[in-house]
Amino acid sequence: MEPRLPSLDDLIIAFDRGLRTVFAPAQSVRPTPGEGLPEAGMSDQERALAAALMRVNHSGEICAQALYQGQALTARSQRAKSALEQAAQEETEHLAWTERRIEELGGRKSLLNPLWYAGSFAVGAAGGLLGDRWNLGFLAETERQVVAHLEGHLGRLPAADGKSRAIVGKMKEDEARHATSAVGHGAAQLPEPAKLGMRLSSKVMTEIAFWI
Ligand SMILES: [Fe+2]
Ligand SMILES: [Fe+2]
What we know:
Layout: H1 8-23, H2 44-74, H3 78-104, H4 113-129, H5 132-156, H6 162-184, H7 192-211
Helix pairs in contact: 1-2, 2-3, 2-4, 2-5, 2-7, 3-6, 4-5, 5-6
The chain binds fe (ii) ion (2 copies).
């Protein structure tokens, strides 16, 4: 099957979505996990650590949005396209939750979010050109790696910070479901070097977003 090339309209819509993702506040339909929990007493150092980790997670969600929008732009079948758009929709809630938590902790979002978005969008669009099985395989592997990453954050977040922990715990649950759904839609198993490449590139992003 020929790769599906996006129309000018598709590109304009994608550009508009990108701007909104990076610059406008995200909205959540579901309540923020841990909303009812009291704010824990933490030292300045603990708060700063929690804010930095939540900044990393927020940038991760910016990347997830961009990947899915990029993939949906070039995905061939309507079925894969709607699975991707559905996933992107759910990631918007993660974006809203992490954004809100960063504010509560007195932190700030990554200054490099436009760059993370652009890079991930390009990777997603290129993935989409490889065909739906690979496209979904890439989605499934991304989600699995995010689950492992979030698991790591549950080990690093201050034990007292129940609010951040509730958000990360719920996100982890959602991402695992996204991986299962991609497999259900016929995701291919990616070759090991591709998985390794993905791990390395997300490591670069997470290390930089911790600080900037
Ligand atoms: Fe997410
Ligand atoms: Fe996800």
